[in-house]
TrEMBL record:
This is Membrane protein YkvI. The keyword Transmembrane helix applies. Residues 345-357 have a biased composition (Pro residues). Keywords: Membrane, Transmembrane, Transmembrane helix. Residues 342-367 are annotated as: Disordered. The keyword Transmembrane helix applies. It comes from Cohnella endophytica. The chain crosses the membrane at residues 39-65, 85-109, 115-132, 139-160, 180-205, 217-240, 260-282, 294-315, 321-337.
Length: 367
């Protein structure tokens, strides 16, 4: 039972790391799937298979290598020199992703709370800084609470959509976009999200070290991501093209269901944005602290200020420009890791006890 509990915990961290500003808001699902009309459900299935397969490989390789950070994994995949440069590029990409997360919080404040966009950025930055004082354990506790709620609420919106007369649009809506572009989309989406998830999945896999727990967590987490993708696509596809005008389309759908449901979902979206932002900033801080030995507080403040400056471009433009570009950059990483054979032998008969830390992640020594 303890191993199953830890597998579920791994799955929730996996889902919580992928489900960020773009996913929870609906923007990411719109960009990579919904706009392709009738092709979208098949693209989601392909993407889900990649999440299960490559998600397990990342964690199993990290456990086999006893990797401290994603740079150790990249050096193994690309070689010492190239791996270091790939990690440099990933630092820049992760900064861009965090800027999107922060901008998503700003859009949420302006579009659904009638507050200033800059207020959303500043409040989220301050809350992120304060939570990082508690370390990764606090992040895991939030994910354990928020991720099941997000799954339940998204599935609820899906079933509410199925009751509507326009619900069949998700399997009949045509697309004028090229099928070649459509079938590249799940590879871009999976490559981008999995390569970015390394910041959390690598130390997670390394610290747990039990192949059975990690593989089971990858299956549960990957399928959970697929269910969320399909549910979000169904809800948005039925309301196209009007829903595409929103920066936070899933928030617009929740508004149709009544004020209370709208406020609950807006809070859930913010928590998903927030937990992913904190987890990514944590991973970047861990990586930069190992390289520079600067105080983690200084690194964290510098990272948040850089994200704040990039966030001035706005959520929609940042996501629609950066995410496909980052997906292309991540395809090489996806190809290399798919060719690697992670340790497939069964776990030892006496597997190690679960780590004392609930998250199983190393703590950054914030001082």
């Amino acid at each position: 039972m303890k191993q199953w509990a830890l597998s579920i915990q791994v799955a929730l961290v996996f889902i919580g790391t992928v489900v960020g500003a773009g996913f929870a808001s609906g923007r990411e699902v719109m960009q990579f799937f919904t706009r392709f009309g009738v092709w979208a459900p098949y693209l989601i299935i392909v993407s889900t298979l990649f999440f299960v397969w490559i998600g397990a490989k990342v964690m199993l390789l990290a456990a086999e290598l006893k990797a401290k950070s994603y740079e150790d994994l990249n050096k193994y995949l690309f070689g010492e020199l190239t791996g270091r440069w790939v990690s440099h590029i990933m630092l820049i990409v992760l900064l861009g992703v965090n800027a999107v997360m922060l901008a998503g919080a700003g859009s949420l404040f302006s579009e659904h709370l009638n507050l200033n966009y800059q207020t959303g950025l500043i409040v989220t930055m301050f809350a992120c800084f304060m939570l990082l004082r508690k370390g990764m354990n606090a992040i895991l506790m939030i994910n354990t609470f928020v991720v099941p709620l997000m799954i339940g609420f998204t599935v609820f919106l899906m079933f509410e959509t199925l009751r509507q007369p326009f619900s069949g649009h998700w399997i009949t809506r045509p697309s004028e976009l090229s099928p070649w572009v459509a079938w590249l989309s799940p590879f871009l989406y999976a490559a981008f999200n999995l390569s970015m998830s390394q910041a959390v999945l690598v130390p997670l896999g390394s610290s747990i070290g039990n192949a059975r727990i990690l593989r089971r967590g990858a299956w549960i987490g990957g399928i959970g991501i697929g269910v969320l993708l399909l549910a979000g696509h169904l809800a948005m596809s039925a309301r196209m093209p009007n829903i595409a005008e929103f920066d936070i389309p899933m928030g617009g759908i929740a508004l149709e269901m009544g004020a209370w449901l709208h406020w609950i979902y807006v809070l859930l979206i913010f928590m998903e944005i927030f937990t992913t932002l904190v987890a990514d900033i944590y991973g970047l801080t861990l990586q930069l602290h190992e390289r520079t030995k600067y105080s983690p507080w200084i690194i964290t403040i510098a990272l948040l200020l850089l994200c704040f400056l990039a966030g001035q471009f706005g959520f929609g433009p940042l996501l629609s420009t950066l995410y496909p570009t980052f997906g292309l950059l991540s395809l090489g990483w996806l190809f290399l890791i798919s060719r690697n054979h992670a340790e497939s032998s069964p776990p030892p008969s006496n597997p190690p006890n679960p780590p004392a830390s609930p998250s199983g992640l190393p703590e950054v020594p914030f001082r």
